[in-house]
Amino acid sequence: MSSFPDVDRPVIGLGMVYEDGEVIPPHDHDRDQLLYGMTGVVIASSEQGVWLMPPQRGMWIPAGIVHEVRMIGKVIMRSLYLSPDESRGMPDQCQVVGISPLMRSLLSEAVSIAPEYDVNGRDGALMALIEHEIRNMPAIPLSLPLPLHKALSRRCHAFIRTPSAHDTIENWCNDLGMSRRSFTRLFRMETGLSFVEWRQQACTMAALPRLAAGEAVTTIALDLGYDNPAAFTSMFKRILGASPRDYRQ
Q1: What is the mean pLDDT of residues 201-225?
Q2: Does the first or last residue of the chain, that is N or C, have fewer Cβ atoms within 10 Å of its Cβ?
Q3: Does residue 1 carry a pLDDT above 60?
Q4: Widest CA span of the chain, in angstroms?
Q5: Phi/psi class of residue 94: alpha, beta or left (left: φ > 0; alpha: ψ in -120 to 50)?
Q6: Which residue segments constitute the domains of the chain, with CATH numbers given?
Q7: What's the DSSP call for residue 53?
Q8: What is the mean pLDDT of the chain?
Q9: b/e map of 83-122 (b: 16 or more CB within 10 Å)?
Q10: Can you tell me the mean pLDDT for 195-212?
Q11: pLDDT band at 145, cuts 50/70/90?
């Protein structure tokens, strides 16, 4: 998908509004992209994995990565498109990131600036500040790597549809007809995570859209198979460093 190929500017801002359930089909960009959602939840997926962006967070999407984007809730989006020269040293894969109060203000200003702004004027100075600040965004572990191994990939997708905190390696080994040793070796090689780490990430990502919609923590915890809300909260805090209630609308 074209992202201002004829505009010779290092950073370009764009504001959009998407409705609940809206889907942007698979595409890629010729510029690196930073997404920021003021409201709603954004889920991006590619062959490599799934990334979930809660409200007030951001998502880094490098140029050339084919991805699909799905909206949960009304999403007021702010996007930056950066030329490769300006994003040198940034991650070469998708990543959910924290957005500081300063960066939020800069993003709000950037989308009101015309693409062909004066690089030597006030608008150019603001975009130059964005180029500096974008390198200070902390990574947030809201990604779920997906395997390329076909049978394992199908099993992972099935789990994502109905996640359970009590699903076991034994269940997966039986489904795939593999020994425990072969499964654990394959799983880490394909995802970079242990099965337990991946399962916890999947449960966390399943919970976030429901938290953003205002659902009760207890309901979500029990639906995901946790024995009690405290066990779910402990896992959630360990992964994200914040309480589930911090992510509720």
Answers
A1: 92
A2: N
A3: no
A4: 64
A5: beta
A6: 11-140 (2.60.120.280), 146-247 (1.10.10.60)
A7: E
A8: 91
A9: beebbeebeeebbbbebeeebeebbebbbebeeebeeeee
A10: 91
A11: very high
